[in-house]
Fold these 2 entries.
Entry 1:
Amino acid sequence: MEKVIRYKELERVMNKTYETKNLSWLYRILNGEKEVSDLSEREFWYTQRLSGGMIGNPCERKIFYQYHQVAKASFSGRMYRLFDMGHVIEQMTLANLHACGIDVKSYDPKTSKQFRYSMYNDKYISKVDGISETGLLSVNVPVVFEIKSSNNKKFLEYVSKGIRKVNEGYYTQAQVAMDLSRFAKICVFIVVDKNTSAVYAEIIKYNKEFAHQKRKLAKKLITNPKIIPHKTRHFCNYCDFKKVCDGGIPDQRCRTCGKYEWKDNTCKITKEDCGFGDPCENYVLDGIYRTGLLG
Ligand code: SF4
Ligand code: SF4
C-alpha cells in the first residue's frame, strides 16, 4: 500500500483564502448558463458507458449488470438532493481554488462541458472535476482534480487514514482519471467536510499497474460475451440489480438481446450502432441470462 501524501500546503492556502466575489460565476452556472449535471441526466437511468466511478465497485457482477442495462438504476429524492449538494460543494471548492489564484480549468472550452477522457470505443470513460496543465503551488506538473464531500465521521477517517484505505472506489476513480487523461500522473484529491466545511487534500500518484488492471477489467466486462462475473454479495439489499442477480428477467435492451454484438456495440441484424440501447421488435433475450451461469 503506497504512502499517504497529505497536501497540507493546499489545505493551508484554501483555508486562508475565500473571496465570495469569485462565486458569481458559480451562481451563473447554477442558474443554468452552463450545463452542470442537470435534471435531464436524471431521467436517463440506463448507463451508457463504464465510468471510473463504476469500475471501482467491489462487485464485478454489479458493474457488468449496470453497463449491460439489465435494470434501471433508481435513486430516492434524498439521494438526488445529496448529489445536488455534492455538485454545489464541488463548484464552491473550484471557486475557492480560483480565489487562491490556482489555475484550475473545470470545463473543456471545446465542449463547454466537464473534461472527459475515454478508451475502448468511447465505452470506458472518466469525467474529471478539473485539470491544471501547469500544476499548482509546489506541484509543478499537470494534475487532475477530484472533489468530494463527506460527513464529519468519514472526513476524519480520510484525514487519519488517507483516501485509499477508507474508500477504494475513490482511489480507483482517481487512477482511472489519470490513466485515461494520459497527461496527468498526479491527482489532487480534495474532500470537504459537510459539517464543518474543513478541507482535506491528498496527492494521489499514478499507479500504472493498478490502473491497467482496471483497464483489463473494463475490457472484459464490456466485450466478453459469455461470462457473467460471480456474485460478490456486497450490500446486495441496496443493489438495483438484485432481482436479475437472483434469476429474474432483465429489461429488454439491446445490450440484453441475443442479437447484440458486444465487441462493438452494434446489432448483428442491422449492423448499426445500438446507440442508447432501445430495443426493436426483433428483440430476443440473450442466452446467458438463461443458462444457469447465474449463481
Ligand atoms: S445483488 Fe449483490 S451479488 Fe448481485 S450484483 Fe448486486 S451486489 Fe452483486
Ligand atoms: S435485434 Fe433489435 S433489440 Fe436486438 S440488438 Fe438488434 S436492434 Fe437491438
Entry 2:
Amino acid sequence: MHMLLTALGLVVAITAHADEDNDVLYQVSTIDALLSGVYDSVATVGSVTEHGDFGLGTFTALDGELILLDRIVYRAAVDGTVNVMPASTGTPFMAVTRFEPDQVLGVPTAQDYTAFQRWLEDKLPSHNIFYAVQVDGVFSGITYRSVPSQGKPYAPLGEVIAREQAVFEQKDIDGTLIGFWCPDFSEGVNVPGFHLHFLSADRRHGGHVLDFNVLQATVGIDETNGWDIKLPMVADYLDADLSSDRSAELHAVEQGKGAAAAESDRGDHGAVMDGECPGHPKRQIRMD
Ligand SMILES: [Zn+2]
C-alpha cells in the first residue's frame, strides 16, 4: 500500500510538473522595447517555438505581423499576403505558449471587439494570471492591420503605425483569433488586456486585430500562471532607453491609431514624439 501511494504520488507530481511547464507564457524582448524601435532580430522563430506552439509577434525590421498556430509560423505581410516562414527567420518580439484550453465557451453572436473584451474579461477566473486566447468561428466583419519592413535608424512603433500601417477589412470570413490576455501588472513588458492576431481558415489573410463582429464562434482560454521572459543581449536592446512610461503609446498602437492619436489622447503634444509632429494617421483600406 505504501509502495502504491508512493507510486501514485510520483505520478501526480510528474503530471503537475508537466502542466506547470505548459502553462508558461514565454516571450523574447519586451513590448516597450518594440515601441521604442528595437526591431533587430533577438531570436530565431525556431528557437522561440521550442517554448510554444501558439502565439504572436513580429519579424526583424518589423516586417509584418507574426502568427503562430499549431506550430506553424505565418507572416501576414503589409501587402496582404500570408506566408509560412522558416525556423531561421528572425524576430524582435514574440510571445508563445503551449495551447491547452482549460475552458471553451460559445461567444454571443453580434459582439464587436469591445463587447467581446468586456464579456470575456468577466468570465476570466482571475485577473492576476495570463491567458492564451483562441477564437474559432465566422466573422461578419473583421478589421486588421500589418506594417512594412523598416530601415535604420528605426522609428518608434507609434510613428510607423501612424504613417505606414495597412488596414484590411474582410466580410463574412471564417478564421481564428490567436493571442493573449495579460494582467495590468504586465505593463511595459507585454500588452495588458487583449492582444489578438487573425488568421483566416484558408490561411490567405491575417494581421493584428483592430475590430471584428462575431457571427458564430467559440473561444478557448488557457490559464497561464508562468511567465518566462528572455531579455535580448543585443546592442539594439541593451542601448535602448526604456525608462519612460509608454502606456499611452501602446494603447494607441494596439488600436491602430499610432503616434498622432497617442498625442491627442494625452493632450500634450510633443511628450510622446520628442517634439516631432508626425501628422495625421494615413490609412490604406484594402478589401479583397
Ligand atoms: Zn499585434
